[in-house]
Specification:
Layout (H helix, E strand, L loop, with lengths): L6 E5 L3 H11 L4 E5 L2 H11 L3 E7 L7 H10 L8 E5 L4 H9 L4 E4 L4 H50 L6 H19 L7 H11 L11 H4 L7 H8 L1 H10 L8 H12 L20 H18 L4 H9 L8 H20 L4 H17 L6 H19 L4 E6 L4 E4 L3 H4 L5 E3 L5 H7 L1 H13 L6 E10 L2 E15 L6 E12 L2
Parallel strand pairs: 1-2, 1-3, 3-4, 4-5
Antiparallel strand pairs: 6-7, 6-11, 7-8, 9-10, 10-11
């Protein structure tokens, strides 16, 4: 079977010139033609992904070659399609402008068959090599960022487990920080952050509380009110974090470490100077730390203290949690709906969350972090198989958590119920209530709360709306228990469940 020929678009108002070029290249390439710039743009709009090269005349009626190049730039077609200019025009200004607009080469009439062939082949080959090189670099960057993100998340989870927490605080702060920064740029030019700087701040936000590793665990996990002395020791975590990062014996000049040091030290400063450790005011506080501070306070309210999202936003804006930059408060209000949606949709998936917790436990017990790429690939493969099997079943599979209350669906289960992949605080979620009913949600989490390692299974019959229709269903759940990170005792991890119809 013959290989499919690559397409070349010849754009010239002279039918004879198009015919000459078509005769030269027709044996090797599939030829497409356009008699003017407007027709060329229409062809590019329809076939852009299939065209390997454009041979483009400069001087044409209606729309000339330079205008076609401008359109190709505006639609970013020029990034994927090399263009060789063809013309009898030899003016340096024309040629220079064509190169500025992204033309790859220039061939002057009259045409020489050998020259045309060689330059067309070279342009296509060089563009292909460039795309491959960009792909390799992007893959390397992606893999590097993925590994860095994994290590930072594992380190953060080590801290969270030591604090006796479930490990989502760092993830939440990371998510809220990213959304606030993106919307901040839309609302003001006061803080002209580049995409790279935003990425650095978002990454550094995961390390904001790293200094708590140096704080006594009894203080971190104390349920009663801290004494003034204990509170003073807890506040030291901002200085410990900065010092820990300063003492890393390499890469001290890297931008990420600089931003991470800022975030660690200053994320408890307040805009009116009432914060700690240095009592900085206004924009003396780095914008990186200002944004992370709001994200930290928001999650402290909604995640740790279980304050409703809307009330938490109001408390922060009214100044009940300290003074913040007025511009950032407006960004927070503007971002409120997106933050709520993102924390539902982008919460850690059931399996990746459990995998990360398992890796973290191993890291704590082994006093080191050794995660091979092969291990991560196997974990991801298992997750994909689980989702595939769940998607092919008529049952709706989910995993439920008690603290905080949350349901994560596997495969398309959430979609069938008219919900997202993850529902946080189901008892106060309007869509979850409409789907299950308040009484059913109360009974479901009651069953989960009363389950024990000796008697982990339970079920209840109820009415559930599936694809918008009320159905008689049975919900079966089984509580999962595992060893505590702090002791050898069994503790509740989560509950897996399934919903199936009785009709």
């Amino acid at each position: 079977m013959n290989e499919r020929k690559q397409k070349i678009l010849i754009v010239d108002d002279s039918e004879m010139n198009r015919e000459i070029l078509a005769d030269m290249l027709g044996d090797e390439f599939e030829i497409m033609e356009a008699r003017d710039g407007i027709q060329a743009v229409n062809v590019l709009r329809s076939y852009s992904v299939e065209i390997s090269l454009v041979l483009l005349d400069i001087v044409m009626p209606k729309m000339d070659g330079l205008e076609v190049l401008a359109v190709m730039n505006s639609y970013k077609w020029i990034q994927n399609i090399p263009v060789i200019m063809i013309s009898a025009e030899s003016s340096a200004s024309y040629i220079g402008r064509a190169y500025e607009l992204g033309a790859t080469d220039y061939i002057q009439r009259p045409f020489d068959v050998a020259v045309v062939h060689r330059r067309v082949q070279n342009a296509i080959m060089l563009h292909s090599q460039q795309k491959n090189l960009i792909g390799v670099v992007e893959e390397q960057i992606y893999e590097t960022q993925k590994e860095q993100s994994l290590l930072i998340n594992i380190l953060s989870h080590v801290l969270e487990f030591r604090n006796g927490e479930s490990g989502l605080h760092v993830f939440h702060v990371h998510t809220v920080t990213e959304i606030l920064l993106q919307n901040l740029l839309k609302m003001t030019d006061k803080y002209p952050l580049t995409p790279k700087e935003i990425s650095l701040i978002v990454t550094a936000s995961s390390l904001h509380d790293i200094g708590k590793i140096a704080v006594d665990a009894d203080i971190l996990n104390k349920r009663d009110k801290l004494t003034p002395k204990e509170l003073a020791l807890l506040k030291k975590h901002v200085e410990y974090g900065e010092q820990m990062l300063k003492e890393i014996p390499f890469h001290q000049n890297e931008p990420l470490l600089r931003v991470a040091r800022e975030v660690c030290r200053y994320h408890h400063e307040r805009y009116d100077g009432s914060g700690y450790p240095d009592g900085l005011k206004g924009d003396d506080i780095p914008i990186s730390a200002q944004v992370v501070a709001i994200a930290d306070v928001y999650d402290e309210l909604t995640y740790r203290k279980e304050v409703h999202h809307d009330i938490a936003i109001e408390k922060i804006v009214r100044g009940e949690c300290g003074a913040f930059n007025p511009v950032l408060l407006k960004a927070l209000q503007f971002s409120a709906d997106r933050i709520r949606a993102a924390l539902r949709e982008r919460s850690l998936s059931v399996n990746s969350r459990k995998d990360l917790e398992r890796i973290t436990r191993e890291a704590i017990s082994n006093s080191g972090i050794r995660v091979s790429q092969r291990t991560l690939e196997l974990l991801e493969r298992e997750r994909e198989k689980y989702q595939f099997i769940a998607a092919g079943s008529r049952e709706i599979v989910f995993e439920a958590y008690r603290d905080p209350a949350m349901i994560s669906f596997v495969g398309d289960g959430g979609e069938k119920l008219g919900l997202g992949d993850t529902v946080t605080d189901p008892a106060n979620d309007a869509k979850a209530i409409a789907c299950f009913g308040e009484e059913t949600l109360k009974k479901l989490f009651g069953l989960i709360a009363s389950a024990t390692s000796e008697k982990p299974e339970a079920s209840l019959d109820c009415t559930v709306k599936i694809q918008g229709k009320p159905c008689n269903c049975r919900i079966a759940v089984m509580a999962l228990y595992g060893k505590s990170a702090q002791s050898d005792e069994d503790e509740f991890q989560s509950a897996i469940g399934k919903i199936y119809t009785l009709d």
